[in-house]
Amino acid sequence: MNGLAERYKPYNSRSIRDTPYWQKLTPALQEAMTVVARVMPFRTNDYVLSTLINWDNIPDDPIFRMTFPHRDMLLPDEYEALKRLIEQDDPAAIKRRIEAIWLRMNPHPAGQLTHNGVTLDGKVLSGIQHKYRETVLFFPGAGQTCHAYCTFCFRWAQFIGEEELKFNAKESQELVSYLKQHTEVTDVLITGGDPMIMNTRSLAGYIEPLLALPHLKSIRIGTKSVAYWPQRFVSDKDAPELLELFRHIIAAGKNLSIMGHYNHPVELQQDIARQAVANIRATGATLRMQAPVIRHINENPADWATLWTEGVRLGAVPYYMFVERDTGPSHYFAMPLARAFEIFQAAYRTVSGLARTVRGPSMSTFYGKVLINGIETVAGEKVFVLQFLQARDPQWVLRTFYARFDPQATWFDELRPAFGEQRFFFETDAPATPELIPVLLQSA
């Protein structure tokens, strides 16, 4: 299948049963769909099903793991209890149980909802986050879904239908008003969900007002569509208009960076995926590649090396390897930080300098973006060598610090300071206090 004649059609946990792929699932996998998909959102499409998944290798195929539920994505007692309630058909009890699981799954890690939000003239602005001095995140309301959902997505709470767990904006005027008062902002990241789920007219409606702001230098668009629906840039009805919008942004003097989420080299092996890269680059936009390192999906360093090398060949820029965040089914996907560093180091060693633009493993924490820069023995103590790549306080950026080596730790909050210290340096500094962040942003 070349994908050029495909028309996008999504499938949810009910409609997938009407496809031939449902019969490819074992009874145990069908049961997992029935139970786990009540908690975690499920959405896929024909391209993922027919082209990316190797059905001779399920459930171990990485793309299958990325899109289909597995029973171990819930804790054993959660799975069994929810299964019983579904069998008893008790809607009220089912809802209570699901809500309890959601809360246990930490729906908004790193303070992304509570501490990154902004106000304008005393009004809270929904769908806008300002975590770092130079960068604002914007969540357009029309872009808060995806062509297909990743089972590990740290923004899963956007997709489960609970309004109080969502953050989204209805229009861009409040963003423009906020940016006019915050001229320190040079970059806007339009994210979701996936902004590329919108038609071009809707996307342009959000972007066009930003082009008149002289202090805004770069527009970033975070998207998985480059991997899960590359037709968006090649054969969709309004693909020509989308590419023309990209050219318009460049002509307006702005940098446009498409932040492409590629998790596995198979996502770049399709002709249409490669054509999507070529079409994006032909507009003058930059395509950057980023993804988390995830257990069951991309633990092989050779896969990362292949992904980065192929990306460079096609003209994409390797950007970040992230650590899976402490949210959703993180107990299933997370791996020890030491293992994540080993994977990154093993892959990094085998690629040329052109692919070594990639940084990682990186953790997006409450305090900032923390890089695992090494595992060393210093003054007789084995430690993680850490560094802030970005931070709530700009003075912390590129500052190196150390944590005691913990072979089991999977996230930043599990680390403790090295060398007998009681706290990390930033835990005693005033900038870590959330209510002081707006003052920092203004004065930095």
Task: State the main characteristics.
alpha/beta, 12-stranded mixed beta sheet, 444 residues, two-stranded antiparallel sheet
The percentage of residues in β strands lies in 15-25%
Oligomeric state as shown = single chain
Output mean pLDDT: 90
| N-to-C SSE string, H for helix and E for strand | EHEHHHHEEEHEHEHHEHEHEHHEEEEH
Helix/sheet category: alpha/beta
For the sheet with most strands, the description reads:
12 strands, mixed
Round the Cα radius of gyration to an integer and report it: 22 Å
How many strand elements? 14
Unreliable residue stretches: 430-444
Major sheet strand order: 3-4-5-6-7-8-9-10-11-12-13-14
Tertiary shape? globular
For the terminal residues, how far apart are their CA atoms?
53 Å
Q: Helical percent range? A: 25-40%
> Count the helices. How many?
14
Describe the protein in words.
- With 444 residues, the chain is α/β, with parallel strands linked by helices.
- The chain has a domain at 10-104.
- 30% of the residues lie in helices and 20% in strands.
- The protein is built from 14 helices and 14 strands.
- The longest helix is centred in the first third of the chain and has 14 residues, at 91-104.
List the helices and strands and how they pair.
Elements: E1 10-11, H1 27-36, E2 44-45, H2 46-52, H3 62-67, H4 76-88, H5 91-104, E3 117-120, E4 123-132, E5 135-138, H6 173-181, E6 187-190, H7 200-207, E7 218-223, H8 225-228, H9 239-251, E8 255-261, H10 271-282, E9 286-293, H11 301-314, E10 317-323, H12 330-333, H13 337-348, E11 359-364, E12 368-378, E13 381-391, E14 400-404, H14 437-443
Parallel strand pairs: 5-6, 6-7, 7-8, 8-9, 9-10, 10-11
Antiparallel strand pairs: 1-2, 3-4, 4-5, 11-12, 12-13, 13-14
